[in-house]
DNA sequence: ATGGTTACCATACGCCTGTATTATGTCATG
DNA sequence: CATGACATAATACAGGCGTATGGTAACCAT
């Protein structure tokens, strides 16, 4: 047996270097050489852990999704137990938007990933599944809130779900500084307040 | 004087070829050679009308924005005169989302453009201005509707504007077929109905 | 201690990129 | 009709890209 290294850890280190490159210089400059430079390793080293560029990108993307999930999970712990679904939705949206630096990197990653996925069947499938899962989670929350009387029963769960998920449309507005983070949060709060207004 | 050609027309033809490439194969494959091939001209020909790639991209982007504006203008003509602001907003949103093939190309163009703009000061300024203009137009509509009693006066115009603009967040959901066009339109209608519910 | 497996690195290959250069055709005018 | 401006084209160049290859160093089991 040779020298022992934690493969998963090495791959995560490299993936994080990729995030930084994407965050600072954009998806197009996320080349093997640039990522290796950012990670402080040689091109050969990087190749040892990621044979292909596509493999690196998908791995980094999955890791970013996990990371976002972890941020949400951590945020949930800070809420009342059990948390009000309104607060859960607010937290999820807040973590998906580029409001803080860490979230910004993930946000830029997934934006570029989606764009690339449109023309690559394999990526498309994965990206589609991810989005579908996210939407399904929101829908579950909303249906449950309706059942529990926190949302008025005359609200259509599908439509309300879509409206919530669509609020990720704040991303370009935030990125190009058309609106400030507090404005995005205010709008989200307003929307959620109305959704949960008429009951509980 | 030499042979006479309409420069603007030639540039538009090439820009449209760029749209097709971006629409079908993605921003990354929108190279000078690929666009020339799609346009059915030589690389030299393309270079004669666009010295640099950046120039081509910005021109094509501006043209796409104009085109979207024209679609909205044409749609306005089909509405009641004067049109109800609710219908205007619905039309604008519908034309910005990738619901029909022509709109899809423009949508993909601007998505890629915004992503590229994040890391290029010049593009960033232009993209920011475009988005700001769009938001300002929506805000004007909403403030006017409040003044005219079509929207309840206790609604905050800034927040309502942001919520409307954020509905462009349906784009990735539509692109990855997480939701169907009719669902996006239903959600938009629901949101607008509520916004315009309490008056007029 | 030695063999074999793994980590790591430098370099090379073929391809594609944006752009520059140069040549040729094509026309309206002096 | 010749001349000069423009349209179009072909080719060249330097650089960056993903990936493949070969070699060296480090380590553990035997």
TrEMBL record, chains A, B:
<keyword id="KW-0805">Transcription regulation</keyword>
<dbReference type="InterPro" id="IPR039538">
    <property type="entry name" value="BetI_C"/>
</dbReference>
<keyword id="KW-0678">Repressor</keyword>
<dbReference type="Pfam" id="PF00440">
    <property type="entry name" value="TetR_N"/>
</dbReference>
<keyword id="KW-0238">DNA-binding</keyword>
<dbReference type="InterPro" id="IPR050109">
    <property type="entry name" value="HTH-type_TetR-like_transc_reg"/>
</dbReference>
<feature type="DNA-binding region" description="H-T-H motif">
    <location>
        <begin position="31"/>
        <end position="50"/>
    </location>
</feature>
<dbReference type="InterPro" id="IPR001647">
    <property type="entry name" value="HTH_TetR"/>
</dbReference>
<keyword id="KW-0804">Transcription</keyword>
<dbReference type="GO" id="GO:0000976">
    <property type="term" value="F:transcription cis-regulatory region binding"/>
</dbReference>
<dbReference type="InterPro" id="IPR009057">
    <property type="entry name" value="Homeodomain-like_sf"/>
</dbReference>
<dbReference type="GO" id="GO:0003700">
    <property type="term" value="F:DNA-binding transcription factor activity"/>
</dbReference>
<dbReference type="InterPro" id="IPR036271">
    <property type="entry name" value="Tet_transcr_reg_TetR-rel_C_sf"/>
</dbReference>
<protein>
    <submittedName>
        <fullName>Transcriptional regulator, TetR family</fullName>
    </submittedName>
</protein>
<feature type="domain" description="HTH tetR-type">
    <location>
        <begin position="8"/>
        <end position="68"/>
    </location>
</feature>
<dbReference type="Pfam" id="PF13977">
    <property type="entry name" value="TetR_C_6"/>
</dbReference>
């Amino acid at each position: 047996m040779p020298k022992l290294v934690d493969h998963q850890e090495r791959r995560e280190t490299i993936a994080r270097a990729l995030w930084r490159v994407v965050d600072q210089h954009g998806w197009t400059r996320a080349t093997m050489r640039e990522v290796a430079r950012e990670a402080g390793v040689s091109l050969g080293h990087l190749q040892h852990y990621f044979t292909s560029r596509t493999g690196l990108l998908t791995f980094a993307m999955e890791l970013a999704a996990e990371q976002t999930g972890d941020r949400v999970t951590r945020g949930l712990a800070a809420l009342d137990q059990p948390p009000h679904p309104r607060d859960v939705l607010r937290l999820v949206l807040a973590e998906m938007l580029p409001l803080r630096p860490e979230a910004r990197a993930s946000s830029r990653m997934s934006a570029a990933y989606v764009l690339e996925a449109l023309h690559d069947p394999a990526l498309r499938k994965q990206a589609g599944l991810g989005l579908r899962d996210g939407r399904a989670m929101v829908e579950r929350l909303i249906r449950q809130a309706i059942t529990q009387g926190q949302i008025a029963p005359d609200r259509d769960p599908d439509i309300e779900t879509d409206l919530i998920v669509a609020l990720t449309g704040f991303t370009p507005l935030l990125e190009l500084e058309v609106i400030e983070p507090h404005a995005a949060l205010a709008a989200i709060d307003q929307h959620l307040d109305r959704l949960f207004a008429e009951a509980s």
